[in-house]
Design brief:
Number of domains: 2
CATH architecture of the largest domain: Alpha-Beta Complex
Mean pLDDT: 91
CATH class of the largest domain: Alpha Beta
Helix content: 40-55%
Distance between the termini: 37 Å
Strand order of the largest sheet: 1-2-3-4-6-9
Shape: globular
């Protein structure tokens, strides 16, 4: 069985780290598969939301340290060569700030949710930070391990944490490399909510299916671009992007479907067009 599972149902793509005996410690092959599956989901019109989670009792313990210096593992493939359903034709141009590979969860233009079901350390923690929304189980633990292994905040983690919680709190988590639980993560604003372990994935799937069923995917793509570029652009630039996208959106089939379904008192049938 693959070390990364991929499944699509009800408009939701679920990417699952699948090395539960190793707390889903990451190998180059696993990262390549995560990036490939993210690209597949970004290109698939049937996918409206992407969920990232781990099998067993952990999200991901981070990079498998056993492969460092061993010659095992291989190369991380960061560019699967799959064109996304939407790119810079919708919303602000994220290519100014982000590229493929690690940033694929951001540039996918589809809502991404991390269901953190246990320890999320190092690179596992960073992958969760690349998602738009995070929910955590009560057993979740987080750790930005980098200072204790002699490296800086890897893979954009300092940038992402500063954006989420501010510089002082980001400095605390990075400088001390201390572990913290889901309750503190919620207080800091890193996760949206903490749930009982057995309730986590059902909650996340219901949440994702609700977005997939009732939110127009083209609008979501534009909103995601707006959110991720909001802190880098001026108000005037952000306002202009919003006005431009609103003008385009009012001519779409999804815009018409939103009002038709409301009048007919039924669920919308959004197509992304």
């Amino acid at each position: 069985m693959s070390d990364v599972l991929y499944a699509v149902a009800d408009g939701v793509a679920v990417i699952t780290f699948n090395r539960p005996d190793k707390l889903n410690a990451l190998t180059p092959e696993m990262l390549s598969l995560v990036f490939r599956h993210t690209a597949e989901a970004a290109a698939d019109p049937a996918v409206k939301v992407i969920v990232l989670t781990g099998a067993g009792r952990g999200f991901s313990a981070g990079l498998d340290l056993g492969i460092i210096g061993s010659g095992a593992g291989g190369r991380v493939e960061t560019d699967p060569g799959i064109a996304p359903q939407w790119g810079d034709d919708i919303g602000p141009d994220m290519a100014r700030f982000f590229s493929g590979g690690w940033n694929a969860l951001i540039t996918s233009r589809k809502p991404t949710i991390a269901a953190v079901n246990g320890p999320a350390f190092g690179w596992g923690f960073i992958l969760s930070l690349h998602c738009d929304i995070r929910f955590a189980a009560r057993s979740a633990l987080f750790n930005a391990t980098f200072a204790r292994i002699g490296v800086p905040g890897e893979k954009g983690s300092a940038w992402l944490l500063s954006r989420l919680v501010g510089t002082a709190r980001a400095a605390d988590l990075l400088y001390t490399a201390r572990r913290f639980d889901g309750v503190e993560a919620e207080r800091l604003g890193i996760v949206n909510a903490v749930l009982d372990d057995e309730a986590l994935l059902p909650h996340v799937m219901d949440y994702a299916r609700n977005i997939a069923a009732y939110s127009a995917p083209r609008a979501l793509a534009a909103m995601k671009a707006q959110i991720w570029t909001a802190m880098d652009d001026s108000y005037d630039v952000g306002f202009a992007y919003a006005d431009k996208e609103q003008d385009l959106a009012t001519g779409t089939a999804d815009f018409r479907e939103a009002f038709t379904s409301y009048r007919e008192k039924r669920a919308p049938n959004f197509t992304g067009r």
